[in-house]
Amino acid sequence: MSLPANFRDVGEALELWLDPSPVPPGRLLRGGRLDVLTSASDLGRPATILNLRRGADERTLQDVRYLQVAAANDLENYDTTSRKVRNWLGSALSVLADPNTAWPVYLHCTSGRDRTGVVVAGALLLIGVPKAVVIEEYLLSEGAERSRIQQAIDGILSETGTLGVNADRLRLALCGTRGDS
Question: Which of 10, 39, 29 lies closest to 105 in space, CA to CA?
C-alpha cells in the first residue's frame, strides 16, 4: 500500500501535544492527491473526500462522497489577508462545518501541505487549538516552512469573523465522535 504525500490523521497528530486531542483520531485525515490509492481503507475509510485542487480526483473510491473547493492556481494560499483567499478558505471550512458532511473526511491538495495546511490550520484555530500546536501539526509535512504557516495563521487570527464560518458548528462537526455522519 502506498499512501498519498504527507498523509496523516490530524487527531492522532494532535495527540503528540494535546491529551486528549480535541479532534478524535479517525475523524479528519489529510494528505496529497489520490493517484496512489487502491481502496478507501488505505485512507482510513473516509465518507467524504474534499479536493482543494482545480483538477478532478484521479481515483474514485466506492461509497465515498466527493466534494471540491478549489483554490485558483494563481492564489497565494498562505496570504489569508487576501479577500480571495479568505473566501476560498471560508468555503472549504464551511464544508467541514456543514451538518450534512459525512465523516470521516479526507482533505487533500496535490502535496497535502499548502492548501491542505492552510485549511487544517484554519479549522484547528477556529475550534480553539493553540497556535503553537497548529504550527507543529503543519510542520509534520515534508517541505513545510514555519514562516509560511505563521503568515497564514496571522492572517486568519487578524480577521477571524470574516471567514463566514460558524465556529460552534465547526467545533461540533470536527470534535464529534467516530462514525457520525
Answer: 29
Q: Which of 11, 3, 5, 47 is nearest to 123 (CA)?
A: 11
121 contacts 64 by C-beta, under 8 angstroms: no
pTM here is 0.92
Examine residue 155 and state whether it is found in any structural domain, yes or no. yes
CATH of the domain at 12: 3.90.190.10
Query: What digits encode the pLDDT tens for the residues 47-70?
Result: 999 999 987 777 777 788 999 999
**Alpha carbon 154 to chain centroid, angstroms:** 18
> If we measure between CA atoms, which residue out of 113, 95, 90 comes closest to residue 31?
113
Orientation of helix 114-126 relative to helix 83-97, angle to 10°? 70
